[in-house]
Amino acid sequence: MSEPTSVSRKLVAVFAADVEGYSRLMGADEVGTLKGLTERRAILDGLIGEHRGRIANTGGDSVLVEFGSAVDAVQCAVEAQAALAEANTGVPPDKQINFRIGVHIGDVMVRAGDLFGDGVNIAARLQTLAAPGAVCISGATYDQVRKVLPMTFVDLGVQQVKNIQEPIRVYQVGATGELRELGPARIAETPPPLPDRPSIAVLPFQNMSGDPEQEYFADGIVEDITTAVSRFHGLFVIARNSSFTYKGKAIDIKQVGRDLGVRYVVEGSVRQSGGRVRIAGQLIDSITGSHLWADRFEGRLEDVFELQDQVTAGVVGQLVTHVQFAEMERANRKPTASLDAYDCYLRGIAHAWKWTKPNIEAALGYFYKAIELDGAFALAHAFAGMIYVLRKQSRWMVDVEQETGEAIRLARRAIELGQLDEAALCLGGFVLAYIAEDLDFGAECIERSVSMNINLAIGWNHSGWVQVYLGNHEAGLEHQRKAERLSPRDPNIMQVRLGMAVAHFFNEDYEAAARLAERIVGEFPTFLPAWRMMAVSGALGGNPPILEKANRKYLELAPHEPVSVLASSMPLRRLEDRERYKEGLLRAGFPP
Predict the structure, then answer these.
(1) Residue 110 pairs with which residues in a beta bridge?
(2) Hey, what's the torsion of the CAs at 510, 511, 517, 523, to 10 degrees?
(3) What is the pLDDT of residues 560-573, one digit of tens each?
(4) pLDDT of 266-307, one tens digit each?
(5) Helix (H) or strand (E) holding 378
(6) Structure pTM?
(7) In whole angstroms, what is the distance from residue 99 CA to residue 61 CA?
(8) CA 72/CA 580 separation, integer angstroms
(9) CA distance 512 to 383
(10) Among 162, 338, 360, 435, which residue has the fewest nearby CB atoms (within 10 Å)?
(11) Cα dist. 591→381, 540, 577 in Å?
(12) Residue 581: helix, strand or coil by DSSP?
């Protein structure tokens, strides 16, 4: 029998798992988090046993396991993430417990049953590169499993990870058809090419306080922003480890862009003075050096963690919006002959947001072209489906039965292709909720999307709409407020405000509903749903000037639309909501 302190070596597959945001979860609800973690550890431990793994080291929110086979380790990891995702079903996004998992096959030291050495350290670093709910494996592991397991693998490139001398090739793994782009940095001897989607690096923020103790806060801001932005499937985001190699250095933004292979760079500063903290951030195009966006956030030092959350939400919401604007402008500057699938998609969005009938038709053409160029483009399918929603809302459908069927086909295909694409899930789910009136499945898809990415403004917008359709008006209003807070300058903001107006209407706050609707038509004068909401709110709220203004414009845009048709323009589940809307239309003077 060996001594407890003796050390042996062996080659094993090391499985490292850790809970994402554990400190935040514990701070918000210690008892609930511990209960949820215990339930999920029972799931995880059971699967580890089924796959012949041995738990070597464990902490409050982390697990280190050895397997004799790389195949067993990876199978266990993928099955565990699927089971843990199911356990989160019905749990509010801010209370969900998500694990990151890394797997590496390598040499380890064993002492008293615990594992040590580079093999363990690499697995732990792979775990930090994984997105919540995802699995990352090393190149050595990939070589062992790629021909054995019927799974998808995406090459995330060569990564330089902390405290490991040699860079490591990293792959993300999922069940067949499941894939999530994480976007960590690819380290290469020659500058990497720009990805085929918007690429961004968040550099360390400069501590302007003169207090070294505030470094942790500045670094925490950057880490939170990087993590939040990386949840957007459509962005390629450089991992924190690579971005932080620039900490404390004088930098040339254009050179940073070339070195990291990114188009956009975020930089900023943190300053503490008189018990207050001021954070400034800016977005720069690394190719041209032009500044695309800048903002400033300020709060009390004692509320530092709340302020950190506010800054993260504010920066991320506006950052994603401005990157999307910049990408659309860039696509529109390209000659038409050079179009590819992604540029078609961007042009489609740009046309859709103009909200006129010719632009809506042009948008649909661009989305179909994107699908023709890339049949697996989930977002192109989803946005094409959304165009049919806009056509139905604005009474522009020509062949209702055919267009309805096509919208449903596109939405189902988007969901099938985009199981791990939060935007495709939420858009596809909304199309099915609105067009097919499958509210429950639509709500489920949208809930999954915001659980994957809590900063997804369009997800909260569509969730707000579906909650109103289901009769949960207060929840719908709250979700729309989250959408507005995350992206206050969003070009799709009229849909958010209309959602708020509709929620107010069914809460019988007709004045608030009319006020919001009037604000929308002031910016989007051809947006029929807002004119309708303005009319019914004015009618039931006893506001003749509002009613008269809405009726006059509505008759100009869409004369002779009967209540029998308009009353079905929203898939309302509750009878009392359907009756209230119908009453509003009749009292507003629409023909029966």
Answers:
(1) 8, 115
(2) 180
(3) 788 988 888 899 99
(4) 888 888 777 777 888 888 888 878 888 788 877 776 666 676
(5) helix 378-393
(6) 0.57
(7) 9
(8) 58
(9) 30
(10) 338
(11) 36, 16, 20
(12) helix
